[in-house]
Amino acid sequence: MSKIHVQTTINGEPTEFLCEPRQSLLEVLRETLGFTGTKEGCNDGNCGACSIAVDGVLVDSCLMLAVEAEGKEIGTVEGLASPDSLHPVQQKFLEHAALQCGICTPGFLVASKALLDHNPNPSEHEVRHWLAGNLCRCTGYDKIIRAVLDAAEEVHQSA
Amino acid sequence: MSATNGGYKVIGTRPIRHDGVDKVTGRAIYGADTRLAGLLYGQVLRSPHAHARIKSIDTSKAVALPGVKAVLTGTDLPDAGDQMVDLGEGPARLKYLRDNVLATDKALYSGHPVAAVAATSAHIAEEALDLIEVEYEVLEAVLDVREAMQEGAPQLHDDMTTQEFGEDTGRKSNLATHFEHRLGDADKAFAEADVVVEREFQTATVHQGYIEPHNATASWNADGQLTVWTSTQGSFTARAQVGAVLDMPISRIKVVPQEIGGGFGGKIPVYLEPVAALLSKASGQPVKMIMTRPAVFESTGPTPGSYVKIKMGADKSGKIVAADAYIAFESGAYPGGLVGAAAMCVFSCYDIPDGRIDCYDVVVNKPRSFAYRAPGSTQVAFATEHVVDLLAAELGMEPLEIRLKNTATTGTRRIDGVVYPKMGCKEVLEAIRDSEHYQSPVPAGPNGGRGISVGYWFNVGLKSSCTASVNSDGTVSLVEGSTDIGGTRTSVAMQFAETLGLRAEDVKPQVADTDSIGHTDVTGGSRVTYATGWAAYKAALDVRDQLCERAAQLWEVEAGQVEFDDGVFRSGDNEMAFKELAGRLEETGGPVIGRATVDPDSGVGGSFAANIADVEVDPETGKVDILRFTVVQDAGRAIHPAYVEGQMQGGSVQGIGWALNEEYFYSGDGHLDNSSFLDYRIPTSLDLPMIETIIVEVPNPGHPYGVRGVGEANIAPPPAAIAAAIEDAVGVRPQELPMKPDRIVAALAGSS
After folding, report:
1. Could you point out which of B125, B508, B521, B543 has its C-alpha 20 to 30 Å from the C-alpha of B657?
2. What is the C-alpha to C-alpha distance for residues A26 and B293, in angstroms, rounded to an integer?
3. Which chain A residues are within 8 Å of B683, Cβ to Cβ?
4. How far, rounded to the nearest angstrom, does the alpha carbon of residue B278 sit from its chain's CA centroid?
């Protein structure tokens, strides 16, 4: 199958790749480009482990074809931290012990950042509603919700 | 609610986990993240039939597809005969193990692997699967535990005969094993009881539901050495299973445990590892395999569906005097299920003088069942707790009152014979009683209700190894064999740090492969913080003793004259901190490595967990909302309270999912109809309130720091607590899991 040339931006870095039309962006991120922080949990859009930001919108990368990345700004978990500090949601996940196995964590972090970008001061219910597309089987969500609320507080105060 | 830290400096604190930054930045390498040069991708063809004889498999068209490098069927697995193999957790029948990896003569469940392909891309491998022609003779399937036991039921295994009370009956049947425990004289005790209640219960097949699919990457070298990178709960048991299936010595296999995305018992068996190995051998290239989500549901896990009948009797004072259980579990396609563990849990929370537990392990046309967090305990807690509540109602007692009156305690002899060492069941129930939640008003409104329940898991010991290298800057590199699923690197490192007076951050824990650490059993049975923590404690003592000798050299005294306390070595007027002494190893003889192995089965302490559940039931739709939920659990000693709470919360929510939503839906011919996270609905963040935790600490006298292990008991009580709350709310109490909306609606219709 002949490949298609795609020009995109990943975590701020202009990036080019070749892909087959049938390849998902998740597959290309992980297997072609080495962004293995984005996880595959179901490959059918039901678990949120592969959450990424596409032009600032939260997307399941397993449901997006790689060719659709043409001209887009892609954000993955690898782009959340700056060289000298973690993003507040990352830091709060650590402080609140909001991860156990960690496989869903990148998706939750990307989704949580998208929430705070969209709504810097969410209620508990708003956090639960926003994150309902991200499944976690280890934590029962309690510490995740607390971490996101705490991160929102911090983002809010520093804003 | 915080735990006390009992005078410890590290234990009881909440340091950030050592692998945390890797896991929040996406840098942690999980099994599926393994990347090697020349990597091929493998895919598995699975039986569409729940029960079928495989008449022929023609792979020629798949082999001819460009990009395909290897194709396998079950007959390509080495045939080492039909022997029993010991994989470190009791004997297993090799034929069953091998046939579950790739079927040979029969497919026994929908999703049973029948062939595998390796190709240059996952898509080509998938195309090749479509080109494999399998001729099946479709057979009638049996999916229910009671139907499977009936005379004339379709027989899964032509040669299976029932083992009854340890003897082979010679009787062909799907009933693999029938056994029983007895204590005292149950018939007499029931005859003398003032109140006797009997009910029957059913629970659906459910899945562990880890978010990370199974995966394996294998590289078979030209010299016959095999390396397997995988997400497993136990690298050593994975190595043993791969060795057994491939009929090769374990010395030729290295298993590298990558980070693991959840297991809950379901990532102890191997599925893809031997297949990836043989595909690598055949192709001469490394092969990576990642299971699809539907295949995870169709072919792995699940945990058994059950039929349980419980009879209990009490006297007028409320003392439970007799108990009788009939427990039939679906073990799935192969025997060796979990009913034995259920028998250990069914009456485990109560002190009952006379009783009987009758157990049946039955094969059905579903995937081979495996452990799921306190395996077997949830099914029977759902049943027993219901009957205990009925006894209380008959006697005019409160549910908590009857539990406190009959609580198991130190010295209680369980019906299966175990006599409890120091145990915390009573303390857990008292913590329920004393909690703000219990003393708060029951949710208002006509459809709100509250229930309580208690559950148990016995925990296990098994073998663990640790080595500890002292670094010249005063830190320690700690190597262990326990794969870390929920923060155990840190709970183990904290015990090491406590022992040597170090900070948690000064210990750098690492999980090593099977060539780099001594044998370590699975991360399961709530054993890692207990047993591997103990190994770390012993390794720390070994370091301490060696450092005492080094200090003695420097001070020109006998080693016996050096004392160690709180991170400082002392002898007479001399004293030296651990860090300073670590910097002087070069001049006193070179590196110091501490090491320890443990096999501490005798000190294991079981754990009890209890719940208070407040619910609201919508009588029109049957939907149950959890309004408030509290979990209490005996941790023995909470090493890292935040991760103890995390276990309690996570286990509770799995129990809530089991109670309300989760089940395998099979069509009549045995096809799994809900093999996705859309249709197999685990709880989401929106379904839940915060999960309140109360850690009880009744230190385990069998462990140097009193640890019990907290991973599992918490899943057992939620379905019963929620059932009781539903009854309190709307007056009906389902006897079948899940308590899904249509079941509630039907029960309400039946009761009005």
Report:
1. B521
2. 15
3. 140-141
4. 28
Mind listing the pLDDT tens digit for each residue in B488-531? 999 999 999 999 999 999 999 999 999 999 999 999 999 999 99
Domains contained in chain B, CATH given? 20-28+461-602 (3.30.365.10), 34-139+208-299 (3.90.1170.50), 437-457+605-752 (3.30.365.10)
- In this structure, are strands B593-598 and B464-470 parallel, antiparallel, or unpaired? antiparallel
Domain co-membership, A56 together with A95: no
Q: Which two tokens stand for residue B747?
A: 């029960």
CATH code, domain carrying A46: 3.10.20.30
B501-534 as b/e: b if 16+ CB within 10 A: bbebebbbbbbbbbeebbbbbbbbbbbbbbbbbb
Name the token pair of B332: 């799935």
Interface test with A, best of B13, B19, B21, B23 (most A CBs within 10 A): B23
- Are B16 and A80 an interchain contact pair (Cβ–Cβ within 8 Å)? no
Question: Comparing C-alpha atoms, which of B594, B567, B585, B582 is closest to residue B468?
Answer: B594
| Cβ B702 vs Cβ B421: under 8 Å | yes
Are B399 and B724 contacting, i.e. CB atoms less than 8 angstroms apart?
Answer: yes
Q: Are residues A36 and A61 in the same domain?
A: yes
**What pLDDT is recorded for position B733?**
97
8 A C-beta contact, residue B19 and residue B489 = yes
Q: In the prediction, which pLDDT does A1 show?
A: 74
Query: Cβ contacts (< 8 Å) between B213 and chain A: which residues?
Result: 40-42
The whole-angstrom separation of Cα B151 and Cα B147 is 9
Question: How far off is chain A from B678, nearest CA to CA, in Å?
Answer: 6
Contact B650 A140 (CB under 8 A): yes
Q: Are strands B40-46 and B287-290 parallel, antiparallel or unpaired?
A: parallel
What distance in Å separates the CA atoms of residue B217 and residue B31, rounded to the nearest whole number?
Answer: 8
Closest listed residue to residue B480, CA positions, set B315, B595, B399, B593: B595
A115, A52: one domain = no
The pLDDT tens digits for B405-424 are 999 999 999 999 999 999 99
pLDDT at B5: 55
